[in-house]
Protein: L-ascorbate oxidase homolog
Amino acid sequence: MQLHLAVVLLCATAGLFAIAGAEDPYRFFDWNVTFGDIYPLGVRQTGILINGQFPGPDIHSVTNDNLIINVHNSLNEPFLISWSGIQQRRNSYEDGVYGTTCPIPPGKNFTYILQVKDQIGSFFYFPSLAFHKAAGGFGGIRILSRPRIPVPFPDPAGDYTVLVGDWYKSNHTNLKARLDRGKKLPFPDGILINGRGPGGASFNVEQGKTYRLRISNVGLQNSLNFRIQNHRLTLVEVEGTHTLQTTYSSIDLHLGQSCSVLFKADQPAKDYYIAVSTRFTSRVLTSTAILRYSNSAGPVSGPPPGGPTIQIDWSLNQARSIRTNLTASGPRPNPQGSYHYGLINTTRTIRLANSAGQVNGKQRYAVNSVSFVPADTPLKLADYFKIGGIFRVGSISDNPYGGKIYLDTSVMQADYRAFIEIVFQNNENIVQSWHLDGYSFFVVGMDGGQWTTASRRGYNIRDAVSRCTTQVYPKSWTAIYVALDNVGMWNLRSEFWARQYLGQQFYLRVYTTSTSLRDEYPIPKNALLCGRASGRHTRPL
Structure:
């Protein structure tokens, strides 16, 4: 079996060496995805396990590594994994969302061939189909700098993945059925920290040493606040960007966001609470983990530390304080500040407004009034094989027009190498969180009220943080700059998972007429073909 697997993986990757570059290391992973009983909040429910683990195993890699991940779908339904924050340079076929990649059929396998090209930082993977994310199947991704690239802080004594997120006691199938009936989801039942409920997870430290936590909000609905009793958190990295090293008492992490903090174990030796709580909710959920000193003199005592609850200004001010460390190296030795995004003229402004409403008596969510419905064939495959009638470029406008919500397979076209401005306008009274696959973007501004052209006068055009997921506060706007340097079909979506499932997403088709490998890789030889692409051929072996 092991020999057979090795042969399969070798065949899958042999044709890629000329593209990815044989000098970059290869890391191989073999994952079996199953259903299994889990008890994170004390009741039995069906979870999605990877190699028997909930959450799934971490992926450890180094800049430019090639990751060969063979996923066996042992579920009784189709399955896909997407890689949040991994840019899939020139290769959106591997993105693992339904607009780009055919689902892995039950009982079959598919080998993802990824390269973490010119990336560092903290990210995560998750199941993208149906409502699988509510059952698990997620895990951390870390991309370390290459050995000769300087990192702007000493190596920590330990480096921990911390996956936090709100959670339901109901099985994912029940939640999906509720959404399919056109109903909203109730408030979640609790918060998990690394797959465990209150007091279930622990992290061991030695007094006097400094540790790194890579924290990701993998939840479904709520922004979260993270804090450690009697310890300060120094932010050092956000989704692949080294930040100014600002110290906070707690950190807000919105849906789909990741960051790295350092903290020093400099308190009297005992156990301390790690607390995570919901933000901007009338009812506050809190969960805890334990920070345990190796020479601990006793258990945690008293209540967990309190944090901010409904204060928006507190969160907005913290978000504005998160800035790029211009002198630090990123994935390459040159300083992160050597790319002067503020000196580049934007060629297009796209304004996106989220909305909620009813269509045919069922709850839907929309972007610029269009509520996305998946086609019967992945959009990227339809594009590659030139299959008509699956999507229409321009099926979503550049600006909100305020009309009623309607259903469509929304695709917006953009020119390769354009430098564009996107404004997210949130006229609703809840926080939004937006993610763009395939890219990292500069968060140049955010404020309350309606965005106008005069809002640009307040933009940060020097050291805005570059990331792939950004929040938009209630009745507010957020503006980003994006250099469209990655050809492909890229999902732009809400990270509020029920809203994403019920239509708050679309695809950005970054297009060029060029067929050069310098601009986009060909379709993978092992690509699964489904829908109206079934029976076609990828390319000669």
Notes: The chain has a mean pLDDT of 95.
